[in-house]
Amino acid sequence: MLRRLLTFRGLVLIFGLVAVVLPIALVTQLGIVRTLNAIFTDIGAIRTGQLAAAAVLENQLDEETGIRGYAATGRRVFLEPYDRARASMPERFAELEHALAVDGEDGANDRALAELRALNAEWLRTIATPILHGAPNRDALLLHGKTLIDKFRDTERPLNIYFAARYHAAIAERGNTLRATNAVSFVAIGVIVLEVFVFAATIMRMQRELDRERGFVESLQSVASVRLVPPPHLAIGAAYRSATRGTRVGGDVYDVYRLDDDRTLIVVGDVSGKGLTAAVETTFVRYALRTLASEGLGPAEVVRRFDDLYRAANAALESFVTLFVGIHDRRDGTLVYANAGHEACWTRRGDTVTILPPTGPLVGIGGLPFGEERTTLATGDLLVLATDGMTEARDAQGSFAGAELVTVWIAEADDRTPQRLIGHLVSSVERYTRGRIDDDLAVLAVRPLP
After folding, report:
1. pLDDT (tens digit, 9 = 90+) per residue, 263-286?
2. What are the residue ranges of CATH 3.60.40.10 in the chain?
3. Which parts of 234-317 are beta strand (E)?
4. Does 3.60.40.10 match the CATH number of domain 228-448?
C-alpha cells in the first residue's frame, strides 16, 4: 500500500485529497468562527443582564437605605443614595428588559421583570412618598417596606439563577466549539503533513529512479559514443551534435577502425529515428560493420551482408539506414567505398571539392544490389563525411542548406588539420540555423599523413 502511495499516481491522489479536505476544513472553520462570534455575543448579553439585575436590586436597596436614614433623622443629606438610585433605576430596568429580550424567551422572566417594576412602584407609593411627606407612622411604614424589599429580593433571585444557567451553558458551548475547531485544525494539519511526507518520499523515490535511469543512459552513451583510435598514418577530426536534449547520443554513427597495418575501415551512417532507441541501433551498426569488414570483404559485400542482418533484426518496414562504408589502403592511397543512399560525402584535393554520389539504395529496403567505387585518397587529401543533419539544416525561413552550400563551406574551410575543418563546418551550420539543431549531426574528416 505504501509503495503504491509513494508513486506519481499516489502523489496526485494526495493532492486531490488535500484539494477536497482543505476547502471543507476552511468552510468548517468559517462556520465555527461564526458560531464563536454568536457565543461571545450571547455571553456579553448574559453578563449585561447579570449586571443589570444586580444593579436593579442595588438601586432598590439604596432607595430603602436613603428613606430609612431620612425617617430616623429627618435630615435630607441621607436622601442622597435614594436620589441617585431613583435617577438610575429607569436605565437599569431598561438594560434588564433588553437583556431578557435578547434570548427571545418570555413567560416567567417577563413576569418577574413586571413584578419587580410593580414592587418598586408600590414601595415608592406606599413607603417612600408618605415618609417624605411627613407621615406620622414611619415605623409601621418602614416595617411594611421591609416586607416589600424581601419580596423584591425574592423576585430578582430567579433572574440571577436564569442568567447564571445561561452563562454556564454558553461557556460549555464555547469549550465544545473550541475543541471542534482544534480537531478540524489538527485534521487539516495532518493532511498537509501527510502530503509533505508523501511528496518528499515520492520525490526521493523518483530521484533514485532517475539516478538509475541516468546511470543507464550514461552507460549507453559511453558505449554508443565510442572513442576513435585512428591508425598512425591517418589524421581525423570528428564532431557530434544530438537533437535529443540532455543526451550525447542519437541516430548518427561514425567510425574509424584499423583492420590491419595497411587497411582502415571508415564509416558514417544515419539510422532512422532519434534518441536512445536509434542510439541502440547505431551500436549494432558499428560493431556489425567492424566484424564483416574484418573478414576481408569489400565495401559492397560488407553492405550487402549488413543489409541482410539489419532486415532480420528489424521487422518494422519503416526502419532504414543510410550508410557510407569505405576501406582505405595506405599502400597505394586508394579508397574503395560503397555509398548506400548517403548523400553527404565529399573529397577535397587542394581547392577542389568533389561530391561522392551514392552507389546503391538505402540499407533495409532489400532486393536491390549494392555497388562500390574506387577513388584516390592521397597524402594531404581530405575525405569529409556528414549526416543529413548538415545538408538538411534549415535557416530561419525553413530553407535547407543542401549539398551545394555545404560544398562551398568545405572549400572555404581552414584545412590545416581535419579537426579545424570540422570546427569550421559545425560553426557554419550553427550560424545558418541560428544555433537551432533539429536533427542529429555527425561530421567526420579523414586525411592520410605522409
Report:
1. 999 999 988 876 666 777 888 899
2. 228-448
3. 234-241, 252-258, 263-271
4. yes
